[in-house]
Amino acid sequence: MCDSCGCHIREDDGGSGQDRRKIVDLHKSLLAANREQAMENRHHIEAMGAVALNLISSPGSGKTTLLEQTIGRLADRLRIGVIEGDIETERDADRIRKKGIPVVQLTTGGACHLDAPLVHRGLHDLEEQARRAGMDGLDLLFIENVGNLVCPATFDLGEHARVVLVSVPEGSDKPAKYPATFAWAHLFVISKTDLLPHFDFSIAEARREALALNPDLRILELAATTGTGMAAWTAFLEELVAAGQCRRNSSPLSATT
Amino acid sequence: MHELSLAQGLLEQLDELARRHHADQILRVEVAIGREAGIVTDSFVFGFNAIKKTLPSTRTTILAVTATGGRDLVLGRVEMECDDHG
What we know:
The complex is a heterodimer of chains A (257) and B (86). Chain A is of the alpha/beta class and 257 residues long. Helix content of chain A is 36%, strand content 19%. Chain A has one domain: P-loop containing nucleotide triphosphate hydrolases (Rossmann fold), CATH 3.40.50.300. Chain A has helices spanning 32-47, 63-74, 91-97, 116-132, 174-177, 179-183, 203-213, 230-249; strands at residues 21-29, 51-57, 80-86, 103-107, 140-144, 161-167, 187-191, 218-221. In chain A, α1 (32-47) runs parallel beside α4 (116-132). The longest helix of chain A has 20 residues, at 230-249. Chain B has helices at residues 2-20, 41-51, and strands spanning 23-34, 62-68, 73-82. Chain B is α+β, with helices and mostly antiparallel strands and 86 residues long. The interface between A and B is medium-sized, with 32 and 35 residues.
């Protein structure tokens, strides 16, 4: 056998080798399994009454801080749950736990992103936690992905909105450098805008390059710790929740529930 | 590295295909990788070639990758050599 090109010529073949060849044209997606689980996750989240957001960013962009501040502003009127994704530790979940809302920590043990099967397990744990906390469902589910601006882009988790965060210290060239992540996002959050006086970050460049990749992308600028821009962010979330409720109420299935 | 886990998934699908078609060897497989899939082609090919020897049916499989539009990875044509029962 020829190892370099795969031709299967044996010296004692006698010319019958070609008869044993079979060609199959499959046209099968290798991401299909994740996609199918993501669809199930989406239905599961909707059955809980919620809409879900997948938060994607590099480590340290401020995802967890944004969630802490968001919970402080919305938990009195929306039922919020969080699924945290990290390679190791429960530190982010511990921070959210202190805010008194249901949270599940998924640790990948090495994988650079969450995927739909892992989130599926997290949804069951989160439902159980919400039930024990006396909540009869959720309005808003945040899935905080593993800190990574590259790999999460490939994996649908079952979210309704994908949010990409870039913080001011990281630089305004990130949309250009990570096109897949921005092309498939719904919202781009420029975070830590209180640090603009100290860094060479061009809001105009970040906006321009992101919109070139994705003209429908919504863009918000905020500083979670000072509160700047948080009203627009919470308005976006409430709009998403309302759209989800409208979708459920107008679904043909709603008449049977 | 998720290119490796995707390569592992491909390997398992090829092994299953070989069983179903009574094939000794998967000779060649074509995969189209979308440019917006966020997959590094070289890493995917490297990962596949690193692990293909772990299964008898894929020991010498040639992986041919083409770039395409979109964000999917699609398994296309598979060429196999069948055993005497195939």
